[in-house]
What we know:
Elements: H1 15-53, H2 56-66, E1 87-94, E2 107-114, E3 128-136, E4 142-147
Antiparallel strand pairs: 1-2, 2-3, 3-4
Amino acid sequence: xxxxxxxxxxxxxxxxxxxxxxxxxxxxxxxxxxxxxxxxxxxxxxxxxxxxxxxxxxxxxxxxxxxxxxxxxxxxxxxxxxxxxxxxxxxxxxxxxxxxxxxxxxxxxxxxxxxxxxxxxxxxxxxxxxxxxxxxxxxxxxxxxxxxxxxxxxxxxxxxxxxxxxxxxxxxxxxxxxx
Length: 179
């Protein structure tokens, strides 16, 4: 008569299973934390972009009444801007930041100054978040563009910009599609 094969059945976990399963749990927690951390950064940057977008009306009003872009921050009273969240201030420059040949009377750049220290050591040095560039078209309408600041050395990566910014890029540096 044959014996049943249940005599050598393993009970409990093997040593390799005791090592692998906790490691998998740690990796999954790390990945989940990374997604959560990036989500917090993206939310903060989106709020800063929305706040920065509100400054567009001031520049548009100035252009409508004077026929040219403001030439300094005092022209648009940017000192009265109240920062909020990670957005600690806005800089204005006639022309386009990093483009010396830009027409200062028909182009202006708002640069968002951000404080990203709350998101960890790798973000402490970041000072520039994004650029809002205003260009006057031939029919005297203003076309606005929200892009990543590629001129400033310590600038936030375009991957954190919301999709509403035309300069938003993914991790590979490719343009994000707008919905």
